[in-house]
Amino acid sequence: MRPNIDISHTLNGRVKDYAEQEDKDLEEAYQEIIEAGLEAVEHPGEQ
């Protein structure tokens, strides 16, 4: 089940910019960012 969350226009814009820079579609960018964030909180200090 995927959460339905509000994301600010500013944050969404940053993700869109990242997707464009990395030549990814928006879904790929969100998935990569979420996975990187989870890794960071699950293993703090290892990066």
Describe it for me?
With 47 residues, the chain is an all-alpha fold. The chain has one domain. The chain is built from 2 helices and no strands. The protein has helices spanning 9-21, 26-42. α1 (9-21) crosses α2. The N and C termini lie far apart (29 Å). The model has no long low-confidence stretch (mean pLDDT 91).
Biggest sheet statistics: none
Gross geometry? globular
| Oligomeric state as shown | single chain
Radius of gyration in whole Å, from Cα?
12 Å
Which structural class matches the secondary elements?
Answer: mainly alpha
Question: Quick recap of the structure?
Answer:
This protein is an all-alpha fold and 47 residues long.
Layout of SSEs?
Blueprint: H1 9-21, H2 26-42
Using brief descriptors, characterize the structure shown.
47 residues; mainly alpha
